[in-house]
Amino acid sequence: MERQNVVNSGGRWYVEYKLPLGEAAATFNLEKSVCSHGFFMTAPNHWDPLSKTFQRPLHLFHSHQPLTTVQIAQPPEADHLLLRVFHSGGVDLSPAHEQSLTEQVRRMLRLSDAEEKKVRAFQDVYGEAKSSGFGRVFRSPTLFEDMVKCILVCNCQWSRTLSMAKALCELQLELQITNFAPKTPAGKESSKRKIKSRNLGKRCGEEDVKSTCEADGTLKVDESNSEKTELPFHGAMGNFPSPEELAGLDVDFLGKRCNLGYRASRILGLAQSVVEGRINLKKLEQDCGGEASLSNYMKINEQLGEMNGFGPFTRANVLMCLGFYHVVPSDSETLRHLNQVHGKKSTIKNIQQDIEMIYGKYAPYQFLVYWSEIWSFYEERFGKLSELPNTHYKLITAANMRFKNDKAFKRLKKEQ
């Protein structure tokens, strides 16, 4: 990553970097790479349909600074990406922070040499992907965020998944501003600290906190008994919480604050396992070794199976995020797709047989073919998803997949 310019825009400083695409320059398209999986719609990710830029906050390793926000753009016909980095700790990033930033951006966009080889091999196997530019599936900057979001997609409508992810990011902002972290069920002392209001000022702890979000996206917080803090970010939302930020929370508080239901204990258990060293996510990811072999898959699948809350569907999604594409996660959406697109009256008992019959010939890229079909179906139904206003993300539900005369579908098409 090469530093380019230091820019002052309306009083906000940012640093511009060039991130070379290398061999991926021939196949990479930012819009298609970001807008390729529902995770791009989940907080704190933000895709701008007009400028074709992607923006989100990132945790920089070994950094105690509140927030670093990166905006990613792809100049026309360029062999690099342009990163604009807003850093609350000052203009300059240390070399360690630059490396952390680079690693997270490359992970989200699957810009490793191993992923590039998979893209090319998949497009050779499935010609339609080459013509459409499909091959990369967006993921989070960290494996922990991927794992939590794989929990959030289970057993609920997409609109609730979006809501839970947003609530977790709002909670992270509250924790950053106030160091508010209830660890025990609320009693007399903690009852004052319960967060009930949707107003940010009322959510931020016992003290009277007044907050305003400036037009340029800077939250200015004026707390009694504290100095003013400025946090640059997109809208009144924080980052996705880290394991360290979640591990000390009370499970009931977390569940109620973010409307997680039974997922709260699973997410909290995962965070605590990471913090306490019982689960080493870095080693888990390194075990892939860039090679999506069956032996690696079996090893990691077994490790994930030992974790509370990681059943077959969740594990398959996590392993897809890790670069294993030979397993199609099967749920009610898979049943719907096989029925509507392939005319299969599949059931939970025989769905794997139907999946093998349809996608087996594309091994080891069965998931990518399946997901290419799913994504094409969504875009046929709702229009180009990269051009969809984020207020319409919640309309992508199973109910709206069925009939083209439903009210939500008509309203969406009218507004596009």
- Structural class of the helix and strand makeup? alpha+beta
List unreliable stretches of 5+ residues: 184-235, 408-413
| Biggest β-sheet strands, sense, barrel | 6 strands, antiparallel
SSE succession: EEHEEEEHHHHHHHEEEHHHHHHHHHHH
Helix content: 40-55%
Count every beta strand, where a strand is a DSSP E run of 2 or more residues.
9
Task: State Rg.
Answer: 22 Å
Strand arrangement within the widest β-sheet reads 1-2-6-5-4-3
Shape: globular
Query: In whole angstroms, how far apart are the ends?
Result: 38 Å
Note the beta-strand portion: 5-15%
- Overall mean pLDDT stands at 83
What count of helical segments does DSSP give? 19
Description:
This protein is an alpha+beta fold and 416 residues long. Helices cover 44% and strands 13% of the residues. The protein is built from 19 helices and nine strands. A six-stranded antiparallel β-sheet has the order 1-2-6-5-4-3. Mean pLDDT is 83; it is low at 184-235 and 408-413.
